[in-house]
Amino acid sequence: MTNLLTKKYAVAIVMLAIVIGAFTFRFYNFSDWLYFKMDQSRDAQLISHAINEGPMMLSLLGPRAGATEVDNGFLRLGPAYYYFQYISGFVFNSTAPQVFAYPDLFFSILGIILLYFFSRIYFSKNISLLISAMYAFSFIVIQYSRFAWNPNSLQFFALLTFLGLLKFLSEQKLKRKIGWLIVWALGLSIGSQLHFFGFFVLTAISGCLIFFHSQFWRLQKIKDIFQKNILQKIAVYSLIFISVFALIYSPVIISDIMRKGENAGNFIQALSSKAKNKTFAEKISKNFSENTKYYCLITTSFCGEGEPFDSAKSALASIFSLALIFSGLILIGKALQKEKSIERRNFLALLFLWVGMFFIFTFPVSFQLRPRFFILVFAVPFLLSGIIFDFFQEKWTKKAMYFILVFATMIIGLNIYGTLAWFSEMNQSQTKDVEISRTLILKNQDGVTLGELQKASDFIYEKRKIGKDVYYYVKPEHINPIKYILAQKKDANFVYATLSLNENPNAQYFAIIPSDADPKKVLEKKYEVPVEILSSQNCGQISVYEITFPERTISKNFRFNKKYSKTDRLFWKDVFGIRKSSIEDEDELTDDINMNE
After folding, report:
1. Contact at 8 Å (CB) between 110 and 104?
2. How far apart are CA 54 and CA 585, in angstroms?
3. Contacts with 229 (C-beta within 8 Å, 6 or more apart), sequence order
4. Which residues are within 8 A (CB) of 549 and not within 5 positions of it... i.e. 6 or more apart?
5. How many C-beta atoms surround the C-beta of residue 589 within 10 A?
6. β-strands 496-498, 469-473: how paired?
7. What are the residues facing 547 on neighbouring strands?
8. What is the pLDDT of residue 597?
9. How far is CA 393 from CA 127, 346, 397, in A?
10. Contact, 354 vs 205, CB < 8 A?
């Protein structure tokens, strides 16, 4: 292997093979198996307005920050994620749901290549390639690259932030140093807009690494700062960083100026809100177990909720995960004692801080942790593996390569096995009702994908009758997705809305029900009138039914409530005073909105 990689273009060829394999796993049945839930349909609806009506309809603020409760409106992230989706829709000239997931797919692939260059700061070409390969085929990394969600691309921008910072701290030439400073500022300012957890962790790690690099704990180093030339450099670097940060955050700043600091106030209020009422001991225990579980999941594809291993195998996997983390951290500590290179010392310190600061920041929310929080550390267990590889290679040189290759092959094999098991589950769910256990990214593990929702929507569209207004029933989490998919028909004569029995004499009714449920029982319990099924189609985890209410009478208090709510967002049109059509608040679940009105 060593001889192979010394040849010209060998590294590029191996990396190309890794990227092609990773892309295949990420793009296989991408559209049909895409998760398109409430968050995704809300974002798609918002961005589709900008695609159809122009960039002035882009929002100044991004998605809501989870379920954070504040007094005024919602606490929102920056809009960077929405702008990536807009670029994708603009480039492909499409508002199809899968188009808005392309940025996450793109940054996931780009992250593999970026990880190689990041690893090369410390590791050899061989080890860096193995780190990238293990990361590229990680089951959970693949899963988070196959649908649209604002935290998904954080893994790329975390790497970009740290690569820029490491290079900035070690670079001697002024122009290059400023270039890497801009890269660091870009990574941090974009990454912090994808998830508020990312904002805190990336900022804290960056600050601590600068402290470590500058050795501010030494009195002489503090005195050196006050030298004129040093103060000038700090002022210039700070000005450049703040300028880039302010430019990227300009939509947020403008929005807060126009809203008199509403989002900033919501941010402060959210920070002061009380965490879950648990004791320190309970939180530390829970945080330790959650970190262990999810690091194990990232590394092996198992140890997560619903994983197919039995308890004994899961325990072994957890022990393996703990051994990996602690042995990696111990070796980092030893390597720091003898490392002379500033850049390599900073790399080791960064990796130590990455693990430590993440653990500290997950402590307050230890009982609310979900896999998405760990997107920030997706690369960490593989970098720790690289530290172990490097140790063995230093000790046993050529003989160590056999152990390294076996270890890396085992990790890649486990993750491919886990991914294929998930693919098998997804494939079965397209045609029949199956137990969903390998989808670990969403709260509602119903297994319903875009392909199934598309089949149900197509059935409704094909069965519609001319002159009839379509009303459909579906579970709350699928209301907006179905509404968005039906809107893609772009048929002005196709009038539809969510189902409420009403006074419209031209009503035609449909229902989308989980395939394992009895549609008559579900609907008759909800509407308290007899239901007759006219036709149906199985779509996998869901089935769609054409229905009617034979005893329906106008006097039976059947009504249809249209609920519109004005958005709390500002758009670029508002900044420039351009009059455009108003849009509904995509964050409120407005069941009864007819997209054609």
Report:
1. no
2. 19
3. none
4. 501, 509, 527, 529, 530, 531, 532
5. 16
6. parallel
7. 509, 533
8. 25
9. 10, 21, 4
10. yes
3-state class (DSSP) for residue 566: strand
**Taking the chain, what is the end-to-end CA distance rounded to the nearest angstrom?**
64
At residue 567, the pLDDT reads 61
Q: What is the pLDDT of residue 563?
A: 47
Write down the pLDDT at residue 564: 45
pLDDT of residue 43: 95
pLDDT for res 280: 87
Regions of the chain where pLDDT drops below 50: 1, 4-5, 308-309, 555-565, 582, 584-597
Residue type, 494: F
d(CA 382, CA 236): 36
- 3-state helix, strand and coil shares in percent for the chain, rounded to the nearest 5: 60, 5, 35
Q: What is the pTM of this model?
A: 0.91
Q: Which residue has the tokens 């839930």?
A: 37
Please count the residues of the chain: 597
- pLDDT at res. 289: 87
Instruction: Find the DSSP H helices in 430-536.
Output: 450-463, 479-487, 519-527
pLDDT at residue number 434: 82
Residue 356, both tokens = 């430590």
Residue 302, burial from CB neighbour count under 10 angstroms (0-12, 13-18, 19+) = buried
